[in-house]
Structures
1.
Amino acid sequence: MPLDPARIRALFPAFAEPNLVGQAFFENAGGSYTAQPVLDRLDRFYRASKVQPYGVYAASIEAGEAMNLAYERLAQAFNVTSDWIHFGPSTSANTYVLAHAFAGRLAPGDAIIVTNQDHEANSGAWRRLAERGIEIREWAVDAQTGHLSLAALDALLDGKVKLVAAPHCSNIVGEINPVAEIADKAHAAGAVLAVDGVSYAPHGIPDLQALGADIYLFSAYKVYGPHQGIMAIRPELAASLPNQGHYFNEAKPRYRLTPAGPDHAQIAASAGIADYLEQVAAIAGDAVQGPDPFRRAHAAMRAQEIALARPLLDFLRTRNDIRLIGPADPERRAPTIALHHAEPGIEIARRLAARGIMASGGNFYAVRLLEALGIDPHHHGVLRLSFVHYTSPEEIQRLIDALDAEL
């Protein structure tokens, strides 16, 4: 493993909290622990510059500069310019506003492709455009594996399609979808690609230039940061969409697609995500390669998670009473691992909690996916075990032992 768990965990105050000592955290897909650099920036903003930003006095100028820095630093992490970056209260809210903006650009008879692999945030808002005469085409998963076939996408694409909305990886299936290939196919058909990166971004901020997505959305609180939704949008595409903010902010790119009043402090704190990723790259050192700290952090985090996932997936393969959703190969998936068992997922999670394993069960807002997989999303659901690079090998073994005892 390229990352020393002790050095990584030292950057997260949660691991020193008395109420969390002895608890192994396996619900990271619902929100990760917050990194120290994020907390430092949040504390600084609240203590020294909790005023209206972008004014003429010193504290206001500092506040505005702290917010501007977050746009710049996240753009660095994505390998784009800062005019790609937009903040909103959550990814669900950001997608809702974005879909409303597209409604003003699309015409009846135009088509949108959505999947049933998604969290509802990147599906429901787009599907509602059917009420405006937009044709909704569903790119459906394989009912056994949850896999999205590129051949199935090809069958849906034609000149009527204006947008494809798909996940980088599902919050249940976990399989990493080939976004660059999806982008090529969408662009060849004259469509734009909106990617829900909520379940992927905690495992490494992607290089958007290499990925090719026109829109990439994720939740900062799942990427070691504050509770904000972040959208990266190709600037020329953003400028072509109808203004969703106050009419007098039409010419301000940061206000046009995020009409909610911004949380100044949390935006400023988000620069700490980039700070943390640079620390990850420094801890990895020469163990990984990449053109910049963010690509090296991505490589290190993925390598760490693959190594951590392998023994867990090997154990699950020995159990014929468990249905693993998604691939068993750790290199093909994020470490968000959903299991279907004869017992409802939440009941298993309760027993695991008694053993110091923090996990959960349910449908995780992927109701359409579970229905497609033949799993009752409302009364049964799945047990979801999700971890990231700061999880330790010892915690993985504790989880295996607990599953062996409780299933």
2.
Amino acid sequence: MFESANLPHVMTRDEFEAAETRLRELLLDAQFEVAEQRRAAIMVLVNGSDGAGKGEVVNRLYDWLDDHLVETLSYRKPTDEERARPGSWRYWRDMPSKGRIALVIGSWHHRLLRNRALGRLDKNAYDNALEDMIRSEEMLRREGVHLLKIWLHMDDREAQKRLEKLREANGALRRPAVIEWDEIDGGKARARLTDAALEMIEKTSTGNAPWAVVPASDPHYRDAAVGDLLLQTLTGAAEGTPAAPSTQAVATPESALPRPSLVSALDLAKTADRETYSQELRDLQQRLTEATTAKSFRNRGLVLVFEGNDAAGKGGAIRRVREALDPRRFRVHGVAAPSDEELARPYLWRFWRNLPRRGDVAIFDRSWYGRVLVERVEGFAPPEDWMRAYPEINDFERQLGECGYLVVKFWLAISQDEQLRRFQDREAKPFKRYKLTPDDWRNREKWALYEQAMTEMVDRTSSRLAPWTLVEANDKKFARLKVLRTIVERLEA
């Protein structure tokens, strides 16, 4: 999850200073409004890798806010007094009053991750604890506590190098740093910590209390992103809306924070070898046929999801998949706007009812992701609905995976220039005109909004059981081979 956190996120000093000037003004205005209303308390939970700058972030927020209304809550190993009470007692003891902001280091998330990484919780106990955590956080929201859950993301090797540079030979630190994971030692324990953190972020991101994963390699970007997230949280608290800031730390117009884009990291110039394409295609189709007709497939199901830009070539890719499947064992579902019958039911109903039997294949040309794409961008679903859709979709796909279904998801990406060329080609050919609608032209005007929604969608729903595959689709042949190769490799794994 959160593939966009691995993209370069850098702000120059000048960019940061301009954003900082505006952020400070907006943050103070929002802070005083929350303090005056006394309807909500704010808890900023600062988590992440040692070396990612947790302490620096807290200090920066103190610089930007009125510190009379801010408090730091820090938790380490429980004291004798705390051990004599339930584990959550110390967090309740320190709960901020309405109108105040608490900056929290070592929250209940840290305690749970630490116990899992040290092997003190097995998988079942950990999963149960995550469910308890979700219920507790929902109760806090209903009581007026707005949670901003931040994970400062940094590659583990980079974080370790930063910590080494901070230490003297005798172990002393050259400058203050928040170190919380020093007892998690050894490859197994660190791998268990990474897995547990991913699972926690995936399972406890709810519509009202999502995790915001903030890239932390560049301190300027990191601090501006956290400030922007806090501004969204304070604004929501002042307006009485659910505490659900955009999970990408996407910029408000005032802050000018650079917006991450997964598509920008793709090399859309990739092409297939024209001389070997036909043979590669046949080979991959044969492997797909063998995989879906093998005895082992009878107890499995295959669900293929195709999303992407208009005219990205979804239909052509689906056709090459279809050619390799027994026509009695697959069905293609072209997903359009929901009917009145479908609108009268939960949005996932029409997809549940079209799941294949074990041994069969369902191909979705567009899918349940419409809730967080077109419904979000076009305003058909309010923010609280599409925000809660991320964990709902993850739960849906997790259930499929646990029942033996393989979910393979593709986003086909093309450039704006290539899309325009394909639109013009469709207009010029009578047998292709039906593929082009006024909505296609209108959607081009919202390219940036769809790109932003797509990045957040992949970040939020690219789980270990059902990861997204981003397909460079300017060259249709390259895209078709990548789609088939991905399906085959997932089936053969």
